[in-house]
Amino acid sequence: MPPLRVIIAEDAVLLREGMAGLLERFGHQVVAMVGDAPGLLAAVDHHGADIVITDVRMPPGYADEGLRAAIALRRARPGLAVLVVSQYVEQTYAAELLDHGSGAKVGYLLKDRIGDVRDFASAVARVAAGGTVVDPEVVRQLIRRRRDPLARLTPREREVLGLMAEGRSNAAIARELVVTEAAVSKHIAGIFLKLDLPPAEDDHRRVRAVLAYLRG
Amino acid sequence: MPADPGPVNVGCVPARSALEAVTQSPRRFLRSSWPWRSFAYLLGSGVLAVPALGLYLLAHQVGGAAAYLALLAGAAVLALPLGMFEHARLRLIDRDLARRPAVVRARQPHAGWPPRLREPATWRTAALAGLLFATWWMDIGVLSAAVWTPLLLMSAPFQPGTDALTGLPLAFAGLVLLPLAAYPVTAWAGARATIVRAILAPREAEIIRSRARLVDAFEVERRRIERDLHDGAQQRLVSLTMNLGLALLDLPPRSAAAGQVRAAHEEAKMALAELRELIRGVHPQVLTDRGLPAAVAEAADRSPVPVTVDVALPGRLPEAVEIAAYYVVCESLANVAKHSGAARCSVLGHHRAETLVLEVRDDGRGGADPASGSGLAGLADRVAVVEGVMTLSSPPGGPTSVRVEIPCDVRA
Predict the structure, then answer these.
(1) B9 domain-assigned
(2) Quick one: B190 and B92 in the same domain?
(3) Contact assignment for B245 to A35 by CB distance below 8 Å
(4) CB nearest to B230's CB, from A61, A87, A89
(5) Among its keywords, does the record have Manganese (chain B) (predicted)?
(6) Is it the case that residue B109 has pLDDT exceeding 60?
(7) CB of B37 within 8 A of CB of B250?
């Protein structure tokens, strides 16, 4: 995998430095580190990047400046991958982020996941490569809310959809669930069918299936 | 260390009445809206005095006992409307005025039309009219002494027969005195408000006042704690799990050290998850960021009983109202899960006629009792301090409905 040019926006210095060290260890290049939302927008303008990793709550207002900046970036630069790392399980934030733009090249992860360094690095790579990554905890919340469309899915299909929302490939899902890839494909076809997703290019339908859940 | 957290955006407890405002630092007091509101409050007496004096002069012109009797009768008829006016204008300078205690099961009776003579509220309102008749001239006196005197001084240079040598210092003195007028005006308005409040509800008002102050202080403190946990412990724990994760990369996977570090890593992740729950319980940030509908939907997601949410509001509500309403929903949903045995539950909310109406309904077994320590009484208190009313309907056999109505405007 080619090294990614990364910009990190996080106001806690310790964590920011740690994340930079982590990403560099996996061969990526951190081109800028900033501590607030205006700084993030300026850094993207100045340096350009393959992926932006941003916190939600940042100065000056300590509300959701980081999320707003991420949404603005997704609007202004569809080619830029954006990964939001957050302390909030509340799906409201994730849904807002995913609602803007195509649903590709975007991710919402709890900060807890940074600790699983390998998984975190691979999530960064997946988002940069065009994937959608949503934190499993957030997906669990969503699945609890979406009782009605979900009622039509089997438990296994629900599980597969959860893993799809995390941005896993069919092969990765098969490994995780210890089933064959053909079985995964069958489940995914079932999901597409039950969610009334019209036939289209497969990747597109995948994203649509995930978004259908996130948007409700 | 986390980056400089900057100022905490929670503000301090605001003054709740004119008399409290006078005791604040002059800078804060003079920049606040209290002097202006006190001025408007007292001006109300002036507005009333003009037609009243007119009527009095008219009766005097006509002469005879009949005219005076007609005047008295008019005053008696007008007593209730005037009392209500007196009551209503108190809102200008007393934030606690309408903070009625929340009523569980029944609405508080109030003075209305036609007058109910057995209702104490009717007589209290009439007494307010008496106060107005007795003190209007003082209101106007204070206003003119405090405001008119400096204005008169300031106009000295323009008065005929005044030379610049005496006129200018006088005008300067007037200019200095004008801001000082805020003090007598606000103090008198505050004193007057105290009398009105004593007539309205001698003891109750004081209790609710102190309760409201406590709730405010609690909320400020909770926000601070949430902020400290978020910026401090939570960030440190994230860093810790990250460093442990990195250490795991360097250790031979099957070594004893790797086992220890892996266990520590898991512990740290669990601590992080617990801390996240704790922080949300202290203060839900989504409520501050996105308002009541989003926060209610998230609370419903966490409920073990399926919840249908239909909360549509035209905009954000005052913060205190959002927080009170949010606690009502959370506590009610917790009660539904714990006690009701319900299979379904719904949360409905809308804002109409300047009132937030929120209702949590379930199809459970009913029989909820506010006296049984189920948190319902505490909820009623929370609703009371934002001037709201809470109604509980829970016949044995169900269904149970908790309904709150909180008067409030939509924030711009």
Answers:
(1) no
(2) yes
(3) no
(4) A87
(5) no
(6) no
(7) no
